[in-house]
Prior knowledge:
The structure is a single chain. With 262 residues, this protein is α/β, with parallel strands linked by helices. The chain is built from five helices and ten strands. The protein has one domain (25-46, 87-259): Rossmann fold, CATH 3.40.50.1000. The chain has helices spanning 61-70, 137-147, 158-168, 235-246, 252-259; strands at residues 94-97, 104-107, 116-122, 125-133, 149-153, 174-178, 184-186, 189-191, 204-208, 221-223. The strands form three sheets. It has a five-stranded parallel sheet with strand order 6-5-1-9-10, with helices on one face. Strands 2-4-3 form a three-stranded antiparallel sheet, covered by helices on one side. The protein has a two-stranded antiparallel sheet with strand order 7-8. Helix 2 runs parallel beside helix 4 (235-246). Residues 42, 98, 100-102, 208-210 line the site of magnesium ion. The record marks 154, 192 as: Transition state stabilizer. Its EC number is 3.1.3.16.
Amino acid sequence: MESSVITQVHKEDVQVSPKAGQVSRSALKQPRSCNLFKALFCCLRAPDGPKHPPPPPPPSQQALLEAQENGALAKLCDAGLLPRVTARDQGKICVVIDLDETLVHSSFKPISNADFIVPVEIEGTTHQVYVLKRPYVDEFLRRMGELFECVLFTASLAKYADPVTDLLDQYSVFRARLFRESCVFHQGCYVKDLSRLGRDLRKTLILDNSPASYIFHPDNAVPVLSWFDDVDDAELLNLLPVFEELSRAENVYTQLDHLRGH
Length: 262
Ligand SMILES: [Mg+2]
């Protein structure tokens, strides 16, 4: 059984139901359900929850209040969650990239063709996590690292996500890694509040399979279908031309509007 030990918060069954995006053509397809998935590695909505994300809350003040009440979140840093922009990334757009079901799929169930097997210690016991890489993920990350300041941002726990990223990021694309403690816990989900990064939001994008993750900043999002094991999936490959175009944008809001056909 896939347990919720990685997330350690959500123990109820949940279902993946990403919002179809308009940027990638294949993102318009209906996503597959995944009723086995139990909020293992990141934030997912409950099966009886709304089909679509609730409307964005008022500016992050409400979220910050919840964060304070929650008491398990990273302390706000005046300078933002990210370190200073390095010389090689000056002028580049910052892209926040999700891990689970965006770049990889992981499971406690043995996967015969797993790309990685990562030991994760939970409450004194070592568990094996089997990790599948999404098709074209290597090519995707390599090019993204050339075009953008790339940041890994996952709602999963660092003790799982960090070693997975060590194996996945063979080109050292990620300038920084943010884990669950950097999320805001809002209405039962871990939200990636882009306003806390310390970057110009007009120069910030998020690539994530879960719309709940970017509910505070939907206009910065490039949606991507959740991936589990489809060997024919070409979503990452298909997104590269989109990101090539976005990398030249002065303002991501304007460019994403254009790509969405508005
Ligand atoms: Mg995800």
